[in-house]
Structures are given as C-alpha cells and as structure tokens.
Design goal:
- By secondary structure, the chain is an alpha+beta fold.
- It has a single domain, classed as 2-Layer Sandwich (Alpha-Beta Plaits).
- It is 31% helix and 28% strand.
- The chain has four helices and four strands; from the N terminus they run βααββααβ.
- The protein has a four-stranded antiparallel β-sheet with strand order 2-3-1-4.
- Strand 2 and strand 3 form a beta hairpin.
- It starts with a strand and ends in a 5-residue tail after the last strand.
- The relative contact order is 0.33.
Length: 100
C-alpha cells in the first residue's frame, strides 16, 4: 500500500440523465476499468443533492494517471461521459494512508 492512490471524481449529470441511466453507463465502463493495470476497486454514489462521486482505488498514482489519459477511447466511455454535465467534473488524487 506504499503508493496506493484514491482517485475521487465528483460530477453533476445532464438534466435528462436518470440515476438508472448513470448506473448503466457507469457499469458499461467496468470491463475496461477492471483490465487496467493497478486497478483495485471502484465505488459510484449519489448525494441527496444529485451530485455524484466516483471513487477508484489504484495501486499507484501513475496507474491512475495512465487510466485517466486512456479513458476517453475506452469502450463504454462515450456513454458514461454523455451523462456527465460538461464543466462539472472535479478530479483529485489522494495518497492512501489507511485501507480496511
């Protein structure tokens, strides 16, 4: 766990995207995500105000950045990006200090 990284992405969805549509689109990218070097886990959630959070844990920060660079050409990425409100995305990376 020396260099494990949490990638935390918050976003809002386009006005006509239902929670079910976001879930289906989010699931569509899972096969690609699971095949990425260093992928450990992913959690997708929605707050009461409608904002979403996508939390991905990686073996290293380099793994997280490599996946971020490649995601736009990933199978299923267009559908997932299509439910996200442009300009609402905030991505941050955190060094994992505790995982249970």
């Amino acid at each position: 766990m020396d260099d494990q990284t949490l990638e935390i992405v918050t976003f809002k969805t386009v006005s006509d995207a239902s929670p079910d549509a976001v879930l289906v689109a989010g699931q569509g990218i899972l096969p690609w995500l699971h095949a990425q070097p260093g992928f450990l886990s992913r959690h997708l959630g929605q707050a009461e105000d409608g904002q979403w959070v996508d939390c991905v844990r990686w073996e290293t920060k380099a793994d997280a950045f490599a996946a971020a660079d490649a995601i736009m050409s990933a199978p299923g990425a267009a559908a997932f990006m299509g439910v996200i409100e442009p300009g609402s995305v905030v991505m941050r990376h955190y060094h994992v200090t505790l995982a249970a």
